[in-house]
Amino acid sequence: MDTLTLKSSIIHFLKEDLGSGDITSQAIFPPDTPGKASFVAKTDFICAGMEIAAEVFKTRIPHLQYESSEDGRSVKVGEEVFTCKGPVLELLQAERVALNIVQHLCGIATLTNSFVQNVSDLPVKIVDTRKTTPGLRTLEKYAVRVGGGYNHRFNLADGIMIKDNHIAACGSISEAVNRVRQHAPHTLKIEVETEDIDQVQQCLEAKVDIIMLDNMPPELMKKAVTVINKRALVEASGGVNLMNIREIAETGVDIISIGALTHSAPSSDISMKLSTQTP
Amino acid sequence: MDTLTLKSSIIHFLKEDLGSGDITSQAIFPPDTPGKASFVAKTDFICAGMEIAAEVFKTRIPHLQYESSEDGRSVKVGEEVFTCKGPVLELLQAERVALNIVQHLCGIATLTNSFVQNVSDLPVKIVDTRKTTPGLRTLEKYAVRVGGGYNHRFNLADGIMIKDNHIAACGSISEAVNRVRQHAPHTLKIEVETEDIDQVQQCLEAKVDIIMLDNMPPELMKKAVTVINKRALVEASGGVNLMNIREIAETGVDIISIGALTHSAPSSDISMKLSTQTP
Amino acid sequence: MDTLTLKSSIIHFLKEDLGSGDITSQAIFPPDTPGKASFVAKTDFICAGMEIAAEVFKTRIPHLQYESSEDGRSVKVGEEVFTCKGPVLELLQAERVALNIVQHLCGIATLTNSFVQNVSDLPVKIVDTRKTTPGLRTLEKYAVRVGGGYNHRFNLADGIMIKDNHIAACGSISEAVNRVRQHAPHTLKIEVETEDIDQVQQCLEAKVDIIMLDNMPPELMKKAVTVINKRALVEASGGVNLMNIREIAETGVDIISIGALTHSAPSSDISMKLSTQTP
Amino acid sequence: MDTLTLKSSIIHFLKEDLGSGDITSQAIFPPDTPGKASFVAKTDFICAGMEIAAEVFKTRIPHLQYESSEDGRSVKVGEEVFTCKGPVLELLQAERVALNIVQHLCGIATLTNSFVQNVSDLPVKIVDTRKTTPGLRTLEKYAVRVGGGYNHRFNLADGIMIKDNHIAACGSISEAVNRVRQHAPHTLKIEVETEDIDQVQQCLEAKVDIIMLDNMPPELMKKAVTVINKRALVEASGGVNLMNIREIAETGVDIISIGALTHSAPSSDISMKLSTQTP
Amino acid sequence: MDTLTLKSSIIHFLKEDLGSGDITSQAIFPPDTPGKASFVAKTDFICAGMEIAAEVFKTRIPHLQYESSEDGRSVKVGEEVFTCKGPVLELLQAERVALNIVQHLCGIATLTNSFVQNVSDLPVKIVDTRKTTPGLRTLEKYAVRVGGGYNHRFNLADGIMIKDNHIAACGSISEAVNRVRQHAPHTLKIEVETEDIDQVQQCLEAKVDIIMLDNMPPELMKKAVTVINKRALVEASGGVNLMNIREIAETGVDIISIGALTHSAPSSDISMKLSTQTP
Amino acid sequence: MDTLTLKSSIIHFLKEDLGSGDITSQAIFPPDTPGKASFVAKTDFICAGMEIAAEVFKTRIPHLQYESSEDGRSVKVGEEVFTCKGPVLELLQAERVALNIVQHLCGIATLTNSFVQNVSDLPVKIVDTRKTTPGLRTLEKYAVRVGGGYNHRFNLADGIMIKDNHIAACGSISEAVNRVRQHAPHTLKIEVETEDIDQVQQCLEAKVDIIMLDNMPPELMKKAVTVINKRALVEASGGVNLMNIREIAETGVDIISIGALTHSAPSSDISMKLSTQTP
Prior knowledge:
6 copies of one chain form a homohexamer. By secondary structure, chain A is an alpha/beta fold. Chain A is built from 11 helices and 12 strands. Chain A has helices spanning about 5-20, 25-30, 50-60, 90-120, 135-145, 165-170, 175-185, 195-205, 220-230, 245-250, 260-265; strands spanning about 35-40, 45, 65-70, 75, 80-85, 125, 160, 190-195, 210-215, 235, 255, 270-275.
């Protein structure tokens, strides 16, 4: 959540929503009418992204006064999660972008937290994937952490993942691992996607760091975990949902990665109340 | 879906996913290994965004050969919706961004279509809102059209919407409408958000073009429609879902706007199959 | 005149004028010599854009102290319209860009005001067009408003204008209007360009919102106004100048659009006086 | 007129005019309807910027076929100056930006040419200034050359101009020249602004390369030219117009700089004719 | 060396060198004079970056014909390493940027190769650091690979490096490692900087993946290697030069990182010969 | 060293080094732990670029408190040249970029100063060339000035340099000079590259402002200086190093240009000490 990177995105988002100007509000409010805005929860959710909302408003109101709920907190319907003061005209022009972001991030944190709570008594990490909304990856991965999850690699450069096509092109897992060891920075672990126990065995021989069990049925996962026997991290992936997460976690895998955290979390419902103030 | 605007977004998205490079694939594939990629449906959905996928691949493969399913078509699980050819290295580096976009757009088109089908025998339009994902508004609004919906305003400049805060600041609906008429281009219609029949009456007196019925119960909507009697377009908004859409539509409103179309549509499941080709 | 959008333009303009640096002033002034700059009118004009000038100086002098004449005021030769303080080096490096902008905007406001004054006793609005200087549309349209004019659509998305080519492609005005009604957001009015009374009649049948009379002689305009009889807004366009504006206005049209407001207004003459100050 | 720099400006201009899309044309034209566009002169002018128009259309139509009148040619009303082919939808979306640019550039070339013709029998160069439209300097200075004029410095870095404030800060012209000689690249000539013969004398003693006579009456210019006696280039500046240009030129100055060339040239009138073609 | 990222950098570099245009060449060459350019070695070096040179020229000459020496090849003085054809004007405007890049990259590859050759019989990898030229990291790290070296992490996100300040803030190496394990993606190895054997022991207890020996004298390194005994990768860092590299390598470390590869490699001398061609 | 231009470069550099975030430091430091950073000299050098370092830190720490050594000062090993305060997390994320810049600029200033000291008793200027690192030209040319050198042209637009290819294309030096005089702004001097006395003579006849002696042996330079006899500035160029600079200077040339100043200066060694503070 580096503000450096965030600022140019926010300006881009604000321009998208503003077009050539807020025709309605400009006609009605003089530039200096003071106001106060509050974000109010219309459903329960895990709070995420309130500092991002603050950054959106700061882009328009340089010395913004604001208060915000702490990210990660469990919020009940009716609670205020963010309040700030500034010219009404600026508040209205930031409203939609700020809401669109926090509703999305709270949605992700809330869904992530459902998965996390489901397996909280087991030694397993819930992680995200690269199946994120284009342009929002850093924010969405932040929301996953807020919800109690962990992050998988951020992009193609900060994690090595050898998949079926890579293996096929090399002829074998060991050859694929060798080529990658020759090329990649030594700071990155090597992860290989496997479909059966034979591939798992090849991974162990090639001394890979992480073995992904791709779309395996739980009983096969269990067997793979036994075979691997702590010699590599074990990641389960594919078709994970709230119905089967517990069964998967109980196979003993270390990590479960879930694309739905970021690509299918419904938005949390939040609305902005605005009051005009006497200065 | 103007390609001019699209191209810089796509480059931004590709850089987000690429970071300092696809370490894994660069270690394994020489730059000129030819391949063929297919997008395969893993669920049923309404096809949307295939030309955007093509633009993503074109960014990396200048003279791309591709075939794609027509947007708007109802796709069944197992069907190929997009195929293209090019260097494997380029295909892999475009894969995730292309999939993330089309899965999202197909999800929106599919959800929109569910709403549209529900009321297809009634003279009502399903429209979206400004509750879109930051950075993706144009694409998401395109997907709504593909799904059979219509678009509400794209940004704060191409539609006038007088809300409760505007009315409060002016003292009355008529004063708010007057101020806007003085300021806004004559090319824009004036829409006013109302909460009760009294406000609807004020709108009619002020000769507004569109009256939004905000979060009214269906019986009140019905009454409002009768009062308005074709003197303005009538838009229903707030809390619309697949359970209540029909009841709302039957009140006789002209337009129903639904934020969930763009902010809560789950992603459609699509995967990319890759085959290496002899040149 | 949203500052968000403005700032990146101003930086672009300053870089254009600066190149790799103000070689002359850097050789002569130490970075901290304080100074005071005044913009002085060399002719009479309508003041426009002084806050934009302030934004230009603020880009270089973060906590700028300045005073400026109110936009819209009628300024006489010799008056100071803007004064600010800051390091001489920064003042000199902002001078030319700030002057180039305000001279241009004052020119537009002044020309617009001449048209407006000419017909001030008639119920007609003077509006601009899309014939603006590339990159400066928002600023130029602001200057038109300052001069007492109104704005036509800002871009191709926030107004519908059906022209001869559109009509020809559809076969008839009614078909063109139908296609647009199917596609466009319901928040936009529909305007159609007409050349004769027959087309005006077709517009009325198609219930368009605005009828543009394109390059019609005044007597034909008068007839069109009578035919339309308040059933649509009437806009006159084409070849309007200070000699014929009154005759056109007297035909009873509601709106007169004039490209020359923005594409042919001569610059108002303003110069910057600089004095070095003891801190 | 480097295309590298031009392209990003053109994209910026097109986005400004397009907003979220050409709602009207998209509703009416399928993306592949072929058409032909012609730019037709509605007044006489000097042709300038036709390759820029081509670049605008190329941004939307990659392999554009076009023909254009040569820049610098004297065009008569009714002539076609530019024709191109492509999808109607793309032609319409490029039309306004292309016209806005060429009308502006033809206006500048035409005005410049009037000045140049006025003194064509005298050994004097007409040059522009930095009083250009922000964002368009390179294009406007190109149009000045097309009209027969020459360019003064492009920005603060590629020419040294010592003005009254610089002189005042240094105490004398010679000290100002010394400081600049110590600091500036040896590739740049040194120009000094003077107000009277005494300052001209000081310039000669300091061996400056160019002496600007700022707002001097013609008789004083004549005297200055005699005093300078070819020991430096002589530039006349300030208040030059078509009425006094000849008198100024006859004083024997080498160069006359005129801000109005770029800041007050009225746009040349050009319109686009569009015909739909069978492919 | 992803072309996507490269292109915008190259355009930025070309604009830096071009300013408002190549005044000299534009005065002399018509835009279509054909020419041929050759890059000729003025010293011996390892060839690196020829495809980047090609990208520079392609930015100006769309369908460039070129031939280039293979990166990694040992080039002798007088050899041609790159030739291409195109308009002389475009060749001259790309020349300096292309040369500045390849001279720098060849310099880095050559210096890297000197280090690599020095220890080519030992099982040690030479790697770079983050001490790169701002804006050129990806290119410089590519040149290191061309010279036979390997890459350390590309940025702060794709490698974990716990340094003295991190350890001090946590109180102990084990606490620092714990905190990082809780926060960081599981795809990244953990590297810790150590100054003495005690810290090395703590690293082994914390099961870190990579132990950096920071500025240790060779005898201490040797001892550390023995203590570690293959339980972690060992990286030597600090003050490495061509005089001491062999002694360091002989301590048995796995990796030697050297900042000088990228921050102090002298440029290889290459010049461009240009010949004008008959078309 | 205009901060306007600098800021966007610094943000670009920081993003390059940050990637998707400083994984290590974010895991360890809370955002508000205060700290103090000092840059300490590890070798002797001429200090250059400390204000740039400050700008880097300011990008992350808005109201930065800092102290810095004056640029141009001769610094001894062990001295602190820059100190600042701020959150440790921000200091660590700015560290590498700030150091990479100042180490490079101090290296350039130091090498430049060696050349300058060598000929400090002679009336000759040491100047740089366009052989700079892409993206860093303005900063590198600043460092040359700090080291006591002067700047040659910044880009192709702010100096005229007629080279062998230009001459060949025109048939003669005089024709090349004529064409340039017709085209170029009158504010620029004309420099011509020569290889022998005959060409020098042609330059004198064409009254060029600067004659470059390209790769001439010292005795030939001496002869050229005599022939020119103050009628033009004389610049020596090609193969200049610390061994031959004095001999070249003694030929009487006015200017010696040296590419190595910017393309081959080894980085000065500077490290950052960080201490955590109680607030």
